[in-house]
């Protein structure tokens, strides 16, 4: 094995080890993304799912206000897979007083 292949193998092995450790941890963990812990978005789920979503709780609004919305909106194509409709997300942002909505988020449609 030449030096480049050895380095690549070692990096891959280290990555596998880290991922395995994360999976085997006793407590569920979340990797921070877009300035928030992805698990914290669950606080907003009741306000964006179902036919009659509930009003957002303060904890949900705090998560949204701290989040990097430009970053989050890059994943908007995955919303329907999670049973979340983009129009409900726009309503949620408004209810939480988020007034600066990035262009990537303004195009949210059903």
TrEMBL record:
Signal peptide annotation: 1-33
Ranges of residues in domain Bifunctional inhibitor/plant lipid transfer protein/seed storage helical: 34-105
Keyword Chaperone carried by entry: no
Pfam families, per the entry: LTP_2
Keyword Phosphoprotein: no
GO biological process, one term: systemic acquired resistance
Keywords annotated in UniProt: Signal
GO molecular function: fatty acid binding
Transmembrane segments annotated in the record for this chain: none
Entry-linked CDD domains: nsLTP_like (cd04660)
Protein name: Bifunctional inhibitor/plant lipid transfer protein/seed storage helical domain
Organism field: Arabidopsis thaliana x Arabidopsis arenosa
């Amino acid at each position: 094995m030449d030096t480049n292949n050895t380095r690549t193998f070692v990096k891959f092995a280290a990555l596998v080890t880290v991922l395995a450790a994360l999976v085997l941890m006793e407590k569920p963990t979340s990797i921070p993304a877009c300035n928030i812990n992805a698990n914290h978005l669950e606080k907003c789920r009741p306000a964006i799912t179902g036919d009659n979503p509930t009003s957002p709780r303060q904890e949900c609004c705090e998560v949204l206000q701290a989040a990097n919305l430009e970053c989050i909106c890059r994943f908007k194509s995955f919303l329907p897979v999670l049973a979340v409709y983009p129009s409900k997300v726009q309503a949620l942002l408004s209810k939480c007083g988020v007034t600066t909505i990035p262009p990537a988020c303004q195009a949210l449609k059903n």
